Amino acid sequence: MAEIPVLKIGDCLLVSIQVDMHDRLAMELQDDLTNRIVSERARGVMIDISALEIVDSFIGRMLNNIAAMSRVLDAVTVVVGMRPAVAITLVELGLSLTGVRTALNVDKGLALIRKAIDDPGGVLGRREG
Amino acid sequence: MAEGHATIIPQLLADNEQTLLRDWMESQKKSGALRGGQISDAELTEASRRLLAALRSGAATGQFADITAPAWDQSRTVLEDVSRSHATLGLTPSETATFVFSLKEPLFALLREKVGKDPDRLAHETWIATMLLDKLGLYTVETFQKTREDIIARQQQELLELSTPVVRLWEGILALPLIGTLDSSRTQIVMESLLEEIVTSGAQIAIIDITGVPTVDTLVAQHLIKTVAAARLMGADCLISGIRPQIAQTIVHLGLELGVVSKATMADAFALALRQLGKAVVDRGPARQEV
Q1: Which of A10, B101, B215, B254 is surrounded by the most beta carbons within 10 Å?
Q2: Which domain holds residue B223?
Q3: Which helix (H) or strand (E) holds A25?
């Protein structure tokens, strides 16, 4: 079965979701990611969903869960690369992922994580909580 | 009814083209075709001349019953041109129809002159002529109506596109000046164009200016909240500006919560956006003439 790779960039972890998610895969990803955050002492997690054309409530909840778990382990989660059509669909579904930070692309996501790590109480830290 | 009689109309049209044109022009002028000033004498004469020539070739085939036949292609083309230009120039339907109907007077006069001594024959010829011209007149009005409908449809589309521009104010800052009422279909277009622009420009902050939105009710507020949420999912923060005092009161009275930073004017929102991006506009003293 396909496994979702978790890449380490400095003190950040990058996850790129490119296959259809289902319950087992999501559980494995959460498992893998939390383990890696602890073992690598990662401060940030970036989830790239630019390859996803369809994001349903299941993936939305999974993203929220990962963000919450990372927060407990003191890592910042940023979802990057959402497509316009996906954003509109999520909003129409009433899922605005309030607990998750977002950025346009990987570059901006990294910058956002840096900023959040360096300045935890700043303007950008407002969204947490 | 003198069904067996061959009609003399084709012959009449061929022999008296100049006379007919002159009398027809007079009849049109009498009915006030040039009064509005939208159409010139030369244009009208040219259109009339073309129609007469087309009628002559159509009539030569002798098929008077059906103006959709290929024989009348040329006449229909001329009428389409005329009604289209009339519609674009803003003439009324009756003015457009009169263009065709005013041909009756000189044509009937000519018929009376030729076969006036034979009442049966005259009635028969007049009937054929009037049927033909009525059909052509109706066709003209139909085309006129269709052109007007096309114009209205195009304007609606243009209005929709024009009313939702996304402006790049600065590197990383977009402005979205909303004008007019926000309904579901407009929100959809606004959202799509904003998100597309966020992708292409890589903007981090979008300022939604609602100075031109006449009223904000719960539905409009919900549409605004949706747009803000969608932009946030794409990694862009939204600011709302241009909230008039009246609208501020309405928002509070309705108990609405927009959940975003809002500013009274676009200038304030722009200043905040620059500050959030770590940029500043500095005063460099009195303005100097550029060398």
Answers
A1: B101
A2: 167-276
A3: helix A23-40
Asked whether residue B185 falls in the same domain as residue B156, the answer is: no
Q: What distance in Å separates residue A72's CA from the closest CA in chain B?
A: 22
Task: State whether residue B222 is helix, strand or coil.
Answer: helix
Do B172 and B156 lie in one domain? The reply is: no
A103–B235 C-beta distance less than 8 A = yes
- A109: contact with B, CB 8 A cutoff: yes
Q: Do B196 and A123 touch (CB under 8 A)?
A: no
Element (H, E) at B167: strand B167-170
Contact A88 B196 (CB under 8 A): no
Q: What's the domain count of chain B?
A: 2
Out of A13-17, B113-117, B183-187, the most confident range is: A13-17
β-pairing, B167-170 vs B173-179, is antiparallel
Burial class (CB in 10 A: 0-12, 13-18, 19+), B158: exposed
pLDDT in tens, A77-105: 999 999 999 999 889 888 888 888 999 99
> Which tens digits make up the pLDDT trace of A30-57?
999 999 999 999 999 999 999 988 888 8
Decide: residue A99, CB within 10 A, 0-12 exposed, 13-18 middle, 19+ buried.
middle
Nearest chain B Cα distance for residue A45, angstroms: 15
Structure tokens at B206: 């979008």
- Among residues B104, B105, B106, the alpha carbon closest in space to that of B129 is found at B104
Number of folded domains that form chain A: 1
H or E segment to which residue A6 belongs: strand A6-9
Instruction: Please count the residues of chain A.
Output: 129
Residue A85: how many CB atoms within 10 A of its CB?
A: 13
- ipTM for the complex shown: 0.77
Domain membership flag for residue A129 = no
Last residue of a domain, one of B160, B192, B210: B160
Degrees, nearest 5: CA angle B117-B121-B2: 150
- Is A84 in CB contact (< 8 Å) with chain B? yes
